[in-house]
Every structure is written in structure tokens, then in C-alpha cells.
TrEMBL record:
The keyword Membrane does not apply. InterPro entries: Cell_wall_metabolism_enzyme, Dup_hybrid_motif, M23ase_b-sheet_dom, PcsB_CC. SUPFAM superfamilies: Duplicated hybrid motif. Residues 411-515 form the M23ase beta-sheet core domain. This is Uncharacterized protein. Transmembrane segments: none annotated.
Amino acid sequence: MRWIHRALLAFFVFALVLTPTTANADTLSDLRARIGQAQSAVRDLTGRRQGQRVVVEQLRGVTGAYAAELRKVDADLMAAVGRFRQAEADLERVDAEAVRLEGEIAAKEEAVRQRAGVYGTRLRALYKFTRTSPLEQLLGARSFTDALHRMTMMQAVTRVDNRLLGQLRSEHDELTLAREALARNRAEQAVLRDELDQQRVALEERRAEQASLVLMAQQEQRTAESALSEFDRESQTQASRIRSLELQFERELAEIERQRQEEIQRLEQQRFAQATAARAVADASATAQARVQATQAAQSAQAAQAAQATQTAQAARPSASPTQAASRPGATATPARAAAPTSTAGTGVATTLAGVGATTSPAARTAATQAPLPGSVSTGSLQPSSYNMQYPVPNPVVTTEWGERTFAQNFHTGIDLAQQSRTAVLAAADGVVLEAGLAVPGKPDQSYGMMVIVGHGGNLSTLYAHLDVGSYAPTVKAGERVKRGQTIGYIGMTGITSGPHVHFEVRENGQPQNPRKYLPR
């Protein structure tokens, strides 16, 4: 059963290689915790930044509304100032018209006075010249015709004077009415100007108030934008810190990988030395067995020769009876037949070595090679489980179970199914491909490496990680339908892995579950 011991030794060596030192594990755990804290801070900053962004947008809206209202007030103020200026211009025009009318009225009044004076002067002159009244002038006429002529002349002069005087009075009255209308118009224009002036003053006060509101809103907006910029700077600082921690984490992983490779190389050399020693022991055992077999063959030949000699001696002595021959001390037939066991009994050590060496014969070694390893699963006779699932790799060796601690995970979220590199990986059940590609775009040596995720309905999905790339990349794409047992990729060494295997996960609602529950038994 030496092959069992070798397999167990290899398994323990493999587990030892995959388990990081306590110091490295603590360092990685600390880095993960710090990265988690930084990511939590970034999420908190992102939430606060989004809230601050809403505040900034609201303040921008308020500032815009205040600015729009200020522009409207400015437009109303400009219009009011225009109307006020127009009213002042109209008032000045009315004042000028009043001055002009006052001048015309004064002129008309002066003309009336002058005409009245001329008329009076004429009457006085006539009275002084003749010393007669108009009646006397009529009575002093030499004839009726002369009297009529005098009367006609007097009436004509009177009519002319009266007409001119009436015309002057009419123009004076018209100018007086125009002056009164102009006075009323001026009063109205003054009232309008005063009203417009009040509107202008009110609009100026409103503008000052609105400008103050705009200034306050702009100050609040600048304060909010400054806080938003501070959130952005903090987010950038946290992002830089996360990147620095991730780089440190990657360096720690690289150091662990280097130590792991050195340990693998050392253990491989140790295993090779042990195998060489085992082969030497096996060869020595085989040689001892051969010697024992040769000794047994020689002893058997000697026993046969002795028996033959005894038979010949007995044939040469016909007078002796069989009973006498058997009773003679020189008879050796019985001892001769007992020779083989006697010699075999004398080589007990060789026999034991031969028994040990027999396990290293070619047949024994072939049997040991064909015997199942610890953790191996024979899938040939297994039927799909109650979940209609099968193993994604034929006849795998389960190297890591669900929940165990590995050098990459404190809690293993699936099972590792080891098999030869580029062995076909099969869909565990019917479904639709949800993802097919690198877990970390552009970085095939990180995380799960190349992977495929298949959805099976009912919030159930399966994940296949550490697949090969290049010409052995996954054979399916996102959105394709697959059948149970269909090839979706090939075993590779992408991502964080120590040997060719498939990391197989089963998820319900996105949460990893124990795959053993869903696979056939």
C-alpha cells in the first residue's frame, strides 16, 4: 500500500504549499481590511458627493431664477426710466408750449389794448376836432344825403373798429382756453411723471433687493461647489490610497507566490530524492527476491538430483525389500522432498524483502497508478443530481472543498476540481451564458482569471474559473444557450492558482453555496 502513503504525502505537500505563512496571511488580511475601509470611505464620500451635487444643482437653479428675475427687474426698470424720461420730455414740451401761449396771449392782450386805445383816441380826436357829438354831426348836415353820408361813414368806422376789437377778444379768449387746457395737460404730465418716478424708485429698490438675493445665492453656490470639489479631492485621495494598497497587496501576493514557488521547488526536490530512494529500495528488494528465487531454484534442483540418485540406488539393489530400504539410515527420499521447505525457512529475511519488493514490480506499479487517488471522483456511472447537474470535469480530484482556507481565500467559496491541463470543462446544467471573459479585464493573472458564468433560471448560476486562454479560450459567449455536458472551455492556469484545476461555484441569488449539495453523489 505504499502508493497510498505517497499520495497522502503529495496531498499534504500540496496543502502545505497552498497555505501561506501566518505573517503573510496577517499582512494580507490587514491589507484587505484597509482596502475595505478605504473602499467604504469612497462609497461614503460618493454618497455624500451625490447629495452635495444635488444641493449644488438646486442652488444653481435658485441662482439662475434670481438672476432671471433680476434681469426682468432691470428690463422693467429700464422701461420705467424710458417712460419717465419721455414724461419729462413731454412735460418740458408742455412747459414750452405754455410759455409760447403765454407770449401769444400777452401779445393779443397788448394788441387789444392798442386797438382799444386807437379807437378811444379816434373818438377823442373827433370829439375835440368838431366839439360835436355824432347826433350833432347828423343834425348839422346840409342835406339828408350829407347826413346819410356822414352816418354811413361813422357806421363803417365803428364796424371796422368793433370787428377788429371783437377779433382780438376772440383770439384772446381762444388763447386763454388754450392756456387753461395746457395747464391741465401740464398737471396731468406732472402727475404721470411723479407716478413714473415712483415706479422707478420702487424698481430700483426691487433691483437692489434682487441683486442682494443673487449675490447671496452665488455665495452659497460657490460654498457648495467648494465642498463638492473637496469631496472630489477626498475621493481622489482615497482612490490613490486604494491603488497604493492594491499595489502593496499585489506585491505581497507576488512575494507569497515567490515563496510558494520556492517551497514547491524544494518539496519537489525532496519528493524526487524520496522517489529515488524508494526506487533504490525497490531495486534492492527486487534483487534480493531474485537471489532468493535463484537459491530456491538451486535447492530444488539439488533436491531433485538427490531424489534421482536415491531412486537409482534403490534400483541397483533388487534384493532389498521396500520395507528394508525405507528403514535404512542412508535412505534420503523423505529428506530430499523436505529440502525445499528447509532452505526456504532459512531465508525468512529475503522472503520478507521480496514481499516488500513485489509491490514495486511493473504489474504492482500499474495497479497503483490505476487505483483512485484520495478525493478522486469517478463520474462514469454517476447520473445527474436532483438539480439536473453533473460534474463539470470528468473523473476529477477534489483538492479543495467548500469553506476551506486557501492561500487566496480565507473561506473557499467553491470546490477545486483538478485534472490535466486543457481537459474539457463542461456545462454542469442547461442554461444561458451570462459572462465569458477575464474576471479582471486585461489581467489574466489576477483573481479568477478566465471564467464563464452560466445562469440556469430560478436565480441559480454556476461559475467556472481558471480556464485556459488563447487557442483554448472559452468556446461560448455571453447570451448563448448551452446544454448540460456541452464543452464551454478548457482547464488552464489563469488567475491566482497553483496548478491546473477548475474552481467551480454554485450561486443562489448571487451568493455562493456548497456545490456538493447540487452535484450527483
